[in-house]
Amino acid sequence: MTDSVKTGQERIMYRTGAAARLAGLPVETLRVWERRYSLSDAQRSERGQRLYSAEQVARLGLLKQLVDQGHSIGVLAGLNRDQLQSMLGLDGQSRAIQAAPVRVLLVGAMLARRVAVMGQHSLGLDVRGHSAGLAMAEELPRNTGADVLVIEQSELDERVMPAIATAREATGVAAVVVLYRFCSSATIRTLRAQGCLVARIPADLNELALLCQSALTGHRPALQEPAAAAVAPPRFADEDLANIAAAGNRLTCECPRHLTELLLMVGSFERYSQHCASRNPQDAALHAELALASGRARVVLEAAMERLAIEEGLPLPKGWAA
Prior knowledge:
Layout: H1 3-11, E1 13-15, H2 16-23, H3 27-37, E2 43-44, E3 50-53, H4 54-68, H5 73-76, H6 81-88, H7 90-98, E4 102-107, H8 109-118, E5 125-131, E6 148-152, E7 155-156, H9 161-171, E8 175-180, E9 182-183, H10 185-193, E10 197-200, H11 208-217, H12 238-247, H13 255-275, H14 281-312
Parallel strand pairs: 4-5, 4-6, 6-8, 7-9, 8-10
Antiparallel strand pairs: 1-3, 2-3
Helix pairs in contact: 2-4, 4-6, 12-13, 13-14
């Protein structure tokens, strides 16, 4: 990117909702963290709304990753970005990839925004241009010297394959990385047969340079797969949830009871998936994904329960730390 573009990105300010979304946080969790720990010196708009810089959003993303690993936000809140990166083991990784940034073109509005927030050079990337989506891929600049075309398509199916092929030919890149959230196995096999590296959208963008480098060398990277340990352990025991539900009976609102039932159900399914009998390695991998997905859902629901309990004066577990 040119200096003028980078300067413009550095001046972009994000409201609370956008900052939370980019950092992967429920917006209510961010508000609770700010109220309790004053996480950032966020500016205020004329209407009093918090405004976050790209640097502040990047720090929020690091906090989210560490909290998901089980660290207490009360301890993390006083640490700067370098210290948080060190805890995640990203400082050495960042220095290593900065030596040879991968020249890329980006397709996908959210992907380009996340890279801008995290900082392209800290991710080991040299962004030569971007477009909002495959439909606008013809807007990508030509003859930029980019080596890799990175396409983010949340729901990926065979209908987009001609557009991917056209974008690859038009840009003249050496490799294509296609990122998705949901995609059929048949579509993945077809894209890989065409020489694309296809992978799920990474939660940690520090993996993106590794994906690009692997696409250039033709080798699938051995990325660290998410494991159950990557999800924070349960913060509410069944007894704690029962106490909250009982205390919520005095309220006209039935949300405490409904949220308690959801948490009990999700937590039960998480444990069931972790111990469910598996027929083969593929089946075991499927159950591990189910356990991970339900664990992540539990973490989101626990944040919502914390917010609800605080607002309604419901009992939180003894020794509770947000």
